[in-house]
Amino acid sequence: MAELIVVRHGQAAFGQDNYDQLSDVGHQQSQLAGKALADMGWVPDRLITGTLTRQRDTLSSMGFNDSHEEHAGFNEYDFHNLLQTRFPSGVPDLVIGDRKVHFRTLRETILEWQDGGLHAASESWIDFSARVAAARAFAADTDARRVLVVSSGGPIGQMTANSLNAPDPMMMELNLQVKNASFTKFIFSKGRVFLQGFNATPHLDVSENAHLLTYS
Length: 216
What we know:
CATH superfamily of the largest domain: Phosphoglycerate mutase-like
Largest sheet: 6 strands, mixed
Low-confidence stretches: none
Helix content: 40-55%
Order of helices and strands: EHEHEHHHHEHHEE
Strand order of the largest sheet: 3-2-4-1-5-6
Number of helices: 8
CATH architecture of the largest domain: 3-Layer(aba) Sandwich
CATH class of the largest domain: Alpha Beta
Radius of gyration: 17 Å
Number of strands: 6
Distance between the termini: 32 Å
Strand content: 15-25%
């Protein structure tokens, strides 16, 4: 069977006007992730990212500067839009500025979205699910034996939940666990995709790199 490793992008610029960029920590995490793959002797023969800057820059900082393919299905859901849809009079300052409140509120918002709410959002839950499924099919439709994808927490959570036939709410439970620059591994053959490992960070689990472990 062929192998598909999906890497979550490195730490992004949480709380900044432009979230879609890596922080200095994000670049360090990505460099360590690339080194971890090299140390394992895992050399990809196909490279894919979403279309987001933080995903492309993660791939580059991992040391992969060859041409790569892109599929928008690997992009994150637009959490800014979902929060703005839930709070049409303005997202509360505490939701914007406090990490715990932000992620608790985001979880509640995603569950409402999955349940058919937030009709004014730019993307429905059904459409998000469909594009992630299309992206996974795109990655697995290949003669390549080792496929490396850089994506985001939401699509990784959804791909993992889908591979386990888990109910929709499990996507967000997994999403909130996905560490920056982590590896989620699938194996695939003839259109079938199976989960083999979730959210691994061997490059950050050593004491000298523990301070680089982040979730957003």
